[in-house]
Amino acid sequence: MKNSWQERTELLLSDKIELLRSANVLVVGLGGVGAYAAEMVARAGVGRMTIVDGDVVSPTNINRQLVALQSTVGAAKADILAARLRDINPDLELTSLKIYVKDELTDELLDRERFDFVVDAIDTLAPKAALIEGALRRGFPLVSSMGAGAKTDPTRVEIKDISKTHHCPLAHMLRKRLHKMGIRKGFKAVFSAEQVREGAMILCEEQNKKSNVGTISYMPAVFGCAAASIVIRSLLGEMDE
């Protein structure tokens, strides 16, 4: 049977699975959080997706990123994930873009299609804020991942409106940036209420990065799965406000 791989999902959701098959989801950032979010959205049966990341796999990604293996070092993250998603669902209408979303590219991306949901898994402040502002301005529902680094307790991960986030340096900086843009609330954030682990961050000078934060294997995956749950439950009309 053509969709036999979705049998267990259909058993859970019944006819509501058609809401997923007809949905169009954008995932920006395919690192530790974003790739897991994208894969869980695809495995749930969403019919159309656009995935976006201009980066390639580095050896330091292997401890936590879905696309990172010894054999994929140097390969484009978007290419690796696109192959995985098509292998999961050959009928998936997938657009894969190898670009860094910033400046005018943000508007170009958001104007490509009407998205039913946007997943922000960008870890750099300025493009992150720009994507959020652009999505909200267009009326696209959005979930944004805060920082999964420097934390180890998955039971402290929470899902709340961005205005209610706490104990997360990235969320703190993002809220300040968004306040200047006139945005104080209006989208779900995945964050951890755990205290940041001391000594887990070092400064660096890399493309789109000014610091490196220590991470453990499972935390980005937990964040990605939480973000995917928001997408799926919202598309099904089952997301609590």
Task: Explain what this protein looks like in three dimensions.
It comes from Mucinivorans hirudinis. Residues 14-238 form the THIF-type NAD/FAD binding fold domain. InterPro entries: ThiF/MoeB/HesA, ThiF_NAD_FAD-bd, Ubiquitin-activating_enz. The protein has helices at 7-13, 17-21, 34-44, 77-88, 104-110, 125-137, 169-180, 218-235; strands at 24-28, 48-52, 93-97, 117-120, 142-145, 157-161, 188-192, 201-206, 209-213. By secondary structure, the chain is α/β, with parallel strands linked by helices. It has one domain: 3-Layer(aba) Sandwich (Rossmann fold), CATH 3.40.50.720. Helices cover 35% and strands 18% of the residues. Helix 3 links the parallel strand 1 (24-28) and strand 2 (48-52). Helix 3 (34-44) packs parallel to helix 4 (77-88), helix 3 crosses helix 8 and helix 6 (125-137) crosses helix 7 (169-180). The chain is built from 8 helices and 9 strands. The model has no long low-confidence stretch (mean pLDDT 94). The strands form 2 sheets. A 7-stranded mixed sheet has the order 3-2-1-4-5-7-6, with helices on both faces. A two-stranded antiparallel sheet has the order 8-9. It is globular.
